[in-house]
Specification:
The complex is a heterodimer of chains A (about 240) and B (about 110). Chain A is of the alpha+beta class. Helices cover about 35% and strands about 15% of the residues of chain A. In chain A, a hairpin with a 2-residue loop joins strand 6 and strand 7. The longest helix of chain B has about 35 residues.
Amino acid sequence: MAATLHVSVWRGAAEGELVVYDVPARPSQTVLDVVTFIQRRLDPTLSYRFACRVGMCGSCAMTVNGVARWTCRTHIDKVAQSGAVEIRPLANLPVIKDLAVDMTAFFEKWARAKGHYKPPAQPPADFVRVPPKTVERQAADEAIECIGCAVCYASCEVVAWNPDYLGPAALNRAWSLVNDVRDAGNDERLRAVAGDAGCHACHSHQACTLRCPKQLSPSASIAGLKRATLRAALRGKL
Amino acid sequence: MSARAETWLWITQRGAGLILAFAVTLHIATIIYAVHRGLSATAILGRTQGNVAWLVFYIIFAVAAAIHGGIGLRTIIRETTSWRGASLEAAVAAFVVLGALAGCRAAAALFA
């Protein structure tokens, strides 16, 4: 690997340009390390977002050589074999400045998809026991580890075509709640996720599943929502 | 359009697609059969004329194709242009009706 990395970084907002910085290459260096080096040593005006640095918070996702990734969990030698790398903000979200995007629309769509637990009108007297082996619990388990990094949302072609589309993360969250046997909000939730801004807009390209750093399958969750909304429509509950 | 209506459009398009999967397979099989046996147009018409089973099959095929294509076209238009609303729904409905009528006319020509 080259001793110096040539790092092209997006500077600006919707309008801007790529600026090249030379960064010394180091062993076990992550893309986030490189961005941090630029901000601390070369140009303190560079804006970006991170918190945990260990793949738990989901705040450092950026577009690295055209692919949405967690920068803290991406070693630079994996993406910059020739010594050059291009870092841009996440796609499908408005850029605030440089590498920081506005996540408002992303989280508003979680709310629109009824991505919150709705308790029943009569709360149970005791803890509800959900056996781990049940079909619903296992379906929820497969979707529940999402940390909201928006890598799937930035990778989704349908979001790019249809800005109203709820996107893979919000629909994946809705699917985990559809399978929550304690929840009482499914009629409302299935109405919220049906239609051309919801699960029926998905073309099953599976870019979300390919890119998810947690190896979740939002595509499978969306397919589950299509089945659930089909059943609801046939029962006249949609 | 409401989420319920959108969902029913989706169900209808998938249902029509299911019919097409069988219809296209049978259609291609008959084409291969006709070509391999060297059947003339007269020989093919000899088999289809007056045959209610072929008439029903091709009417179902034509209507399913028009419905499937029309709903799919609507989706493509909405994803690639800003066209929305009643004018789009009317244009797509016209596409489906005209496509189905043209297909039924062709099926009737094979039958009569």
